[in-house]
Every structure is written in structure tokens, then in C-alpha cells.
Amino acid sequence: MSHEFPSSSTPAFTYYNDFPQYKAVMNGNANKILSLIQNIMDEVHGEGNILDTPQVKSFEEKFATILDINDRILDHVTLEMDHIEFPERVSNNAQELVVATQKKFSASQPVVFEVQKSSERNSNVQNAGGTSSSVKLLAAKNVSRPQVLFSRQPDNTANPFRPFLKKKPNAIVPLENSMNTDNPESEDYPHPYFQELEAFADEIAKMTYTPASNPVPKSLVDTDFEFVDSQESLDRIMSELKTENEIAVDLEHHGYRTFLGITCLLQLSTRSKDYVIDTLALRDHLNCLNEVFTDPAIVKVFHGSDLDLMWLQRDFSVYVVNLFDTGQASRLLMLPRFSLSYLLQNFANTVTNKMYQLADWRIRPLPQELIEYARSDTHYLLYIAEQLRGFLSDRGLLQSAMERSRELCLRIYQKPKFDSLGYLSLYKISSGNSLNKRQLYALKHLYALRDSIARREDESLQYVLPNHMMKTIAEELPRETTGIFACCSPIPPLVRKYVYDLHKIILDARNNKLGDLMVDELAGEIFDFSEQTDLRSALAASHKMVDSNLIAAPPHDFSRSRTRPTFSNFVRGPGIADSWCPPSQLGKAFEMVRTW
């Protein structure tokens, strides 16, 4: 039947296409066929995009994508057949990545030295400084994305977040009255427990410290433990928690293979028992925790609760009343360090094992070492909190610590909004690279496309396209799609899938007239772009205030100098010879920059 339809190269096609009804039917069927093919490719993880979103693609581009995916599917089938024929070649699904961290790097930016199996673990891995300081990133080759099975799918749109409370335990004001706002134009929702937290402020004002029994906790081996992953076990521990007057709380979170983030574990500890709740399995049932978490008679002890409170609201609509944050207590007491590891070492005489701090907490079943690692974060926390309360009371700071914790509870979760000027923060002149107007145009639209893809695919921005790769693509402006791949090592899966959408932006930046390339008003005010003008010369020629997100640095490397230069008396403008005079606006802006 398909042969009876005229092809695009025949006069009959042009004739029939003049009829709107025929054109509408054919376009509709074409879109349905493309959607079916796209769904099939997604099911087999084809990492390709043939739909005309977010960029329109030519027939040749779509056909080339399908051919490429077919080739990779056949390669994958061949590999799987080899695994079946030679099973001894198949390695274990879970691997330990030995990661050596250096002092000048944060734990979120590890330097990977080697990947090993447990049986081949090398205990002599050292960091660049020569001292043994390794942690393990325990991850699996193929971890299924748990959000696919959620009954309530993540909402990555720009729509404001709304809690999904069905009932409100420990209420002073009923739920239906708590969610009404006086400002109908406001996108933010009112805090459901605002009145209850305001009432608790009166309790804080009357609070006095009475020393309590504070026995040293038993070891993890000698302490009762329960892993909670069913509705029955959740109901049972809820009845146990309601009898306590204090509980320690911590969460384990994953934010790399999802846009908003996922809470993977919830750890609770009482004086006699530890609990680890599988929040992936019980995601739809954890709203019942409000019965305990909003009970003002039960103290909830967190350490560094800023993000934990937001994750509880976002994933479970769980709120907290009567919080004691040991991180805030540490700051009020002006301890040398505010980390949990410092408190454990100095108040519980326990050295934490941070070998698995970079673990992928989505792994199921959860390895025993990860369960023990998660337990250790709350096991000693009640013991530490009681000591901190005593020190705070001696200094008259207990009420201040409780008030700071209450203010944290008053915060509400808000979804991340797209910042149209966020791409400007990628400027780092200290790297030696600068951008002209065409490169700036590419960077701006790559930045927006990455956000759109991340929301659509429910992946993090760094998984879609890391910052350094995005900046490299904008700098190089490759002519061909292979050039985009060359700018990425390794190539992110979604870069393969959306390579033609990325390439369309690059072609627009290369081929459009300079005057047709739209830049933001802020960037246009700061930089006088032309074909020959780059970012460094534009900054030097400008007297106007730069945006606070821009990162600037002097042309010389002072990183090894004992003193840093001051720009408050330098002029940056035409006639760049530095002269001593009152600072200009741009000079003041440079003075505020501290990142280099």
C-alpha cells in the first residue's frame, strides 16, 4: 500500500500536497510513525532522537540516526551472544571504583585512579600527595532507574511545587486552612505547619535544660537493627517510634541520574535500636512519618538538616516540628570543625569510615557494607546531641540553637528554575580561554537546550552535558557532528541522542550574520562584540559593571604568591596602562571576585 503514495521527488507529491486534508493526514501519520520508532529506540536504549523536538531535523539526519542505532543494537546483540557462549568472561555486576581524593579537591570531584573488583582490591592506591586517602565508589553497571516505577512521576516542569498532603497529624490549624494563601498571585505555597512551628517558638522561649541519662551507645553489632522495606514493617516501627522522646534522622540521596533528585534511604536511631527505611520501595507510604516528625513532644536530631528537610518535603511531604540540628549547635559553640565526622571523633570517640561516601544508593539489594555505613550516621547522634545541649546550656545558647533549627523547618521546598543568564557563570578567564559573540551565542543556546533535555529525560544537567564539555563545544564550534563527539570524552549518552539538536545550534552560530545573533541585554552592555573581539579585550575596554556571576582573574598567576593583588586602585579601560586613581565600577567588580 505504501507504494501507492507518491514520493517526494514526483510531481504527484506536489499536486496532492496542495490539498490541506491530504497534507494533514499524511503529516499526522508521519508523526505517529516517527513516535513509534522513537519509542522503540528508547526501549532498547538507542540513544538517538529522530523527533523534531527540540530542533527540526532533516530526513537525512533522521535516517542516519536510525542506521547508527541499528548498528549499535546489532553490536550489543553480538556481545550478549558472546556472554552466553562464554559466561566466564562476564564480570560481576557490582564494582568498586577506588577513588583517591586530594585535599584541594572536594569529595564531589574525585580523581579516579582505577576500577577494581572486590577480589582484586589494591590497598596501596595513593593520592597525588603520596598519602593513603582513598574512598570507594560502589556502583553497579546497570542500575534500573527507580523513578520509572514511581506511581507519582517527578514533575520537572516550571510549575511550582505543591505538597501532596492528604492529612495533617498534630495539627493546630486544619489542613484545608493551612494551604490557603492570602496572595493568589504568589507561586509559593504556604508552609502547611507554619502555625504549629510558630506555636513551638513559645515552647522554645520557656525551654530549660535538665541533664538526662546519656549512656554510651553500644556498638553496631550489639545494637538491634531493622531494615524496613514493607508496609507491615513500616506500620510496626511507627508504633515503636511514637513511644520515643527523641530520634536521630539522616537521609541518603541520589542526584546524578535524575533532574530533581531522589531520596534513597532514611536512617533512624533511638537509644536502643537502629532503622534503615528503603524509601524507594515505600515512597508512596512515608507520609505517615508526619505523625512522629511533626510531634512537638519528640525531638528530631539531624546533622546539617538544610537539604534533608527539603528532600523530605519534596519526596514524601514530610515536615518537622521540634528539630535539634547538631550542625547549628557546632556553629554556635564555635567548634574547630562543624562536620559530623569531627563530632563523632571528639564526642563519641569513633572514627568514621568514609570509604563509601560516593556510593550509588539506588543499588538494590543494598550491600551489607552500605547498610552499616548508613547506620553509622545516626547511631551515635543522640549521644552527641545530649552533650552538645549541655555545653549550649552552660553558655546560655540552647534556646538560640533550637530557634535556628526551627527557622530551618520553616523553609519550603522550591523546584529549580531555569536561569537564562546562568551560562555567564561559565566564563573563567583564568583558564586562558575567551569567547567571541558567535561562541557566546552557542554557549547560551547550548545551556538552554541542556536544561530542556535534562527536564525531558529526567537526568541531571551534568549527566546530559558536563560544563567543561559544553564550554569546549561553544569554543570550538565544530562543523560536523563528529566534531561534537571529539569535544566530549567520554561521550555522554544523551549527546549521542540529541547530537543533531546540538549541531543545529552550532551551525546557527557559525553561519548566521553577526547582527542576527541575539545576545542578552546584560551581555550586550558588558561586551562590545565583533568578529575580532574576544571576551578578554571586551572586558578590558569596558567601564560598565559586570554581572556578579562572572568570574574574572588578572593576567598573571598569583596562585603561588603569599599575597594576592588588590584591584581597588586599578583602572580597567581604554589605555590599559595601570594608573593609580579611585576605582571605577569595573574595578569594584574585580575587587569582589574571590574565586581565582
For CATH, the homologous superfamily of the largest domain is named as Ribonuclease H-like superfamily/Ribonuclease H
Shape: elongated
Please report which band the strand proportion falls in: under 5%, 5-15%, 15-25%, 25-35%, 35-45% or over 45%. 5-15%
How many beta-strand elements? 9
The termini sit apart by: 67 Å
Organism: Schistocephalus solidus (Tapeworm)
Keywords: Exonuclease, Exosome, Hydrolase, Nuclease, Nucleus, rRNA processing
GO cellular component, one term: nucleolus
Protein name: Exosome complex component 10 homolog
Protein model, in words:
Belongs to the exosome component 10/RRP6 family. GO terms for molecular function: 3'-5'-RNA exonuclease activity; nucleotide binding; single-stranded RNA binding. It is found in: Nucleus. Keywords: Exonuclease, Exosome, Hydrolase, Nuclease, Nucleus, rRNA processing. Residues 436-516 form the HRDC domain. The protein has helices at 11-16, 20-43, 59-85, 175-178, 194-205, 231-241, 290-293, 306-316, 326-332, 340-347, 368-379, 381-394, 398-409, 437-457, 461-464, 467-476, 481-486, 493-497, 499-511, 521-526, 535-540, 585-592; strands spanning 94-100, 111-116, 134-140, 224-228, 246-254, 262-269, 273-278, 299-302, 323-325. The protein is of the alpha/beta class and 596 residues long. It folds into four domains: 2-85, no CATH class; 94-140, no CATH class; 188-409, Nucleotidyltransferase, domain 5 (2-Layer Sandwich); 422-592, DNA polymerase, domain 1 (Orthogonal Bundle), CATH 1.10.150.80. The protein has a six-stranded mixed beta sheet, sandwiched between helices. It has a three-stranded antiparallel beta sheet with strand order 2-1-3, with no helix packed on it. Helix 9 packs parallel to helix 12 (381-394) and helix 14 runs antiparallel to helix 16. The N and C termini lie far apart (67 Å). The relative contact order is 0.08.
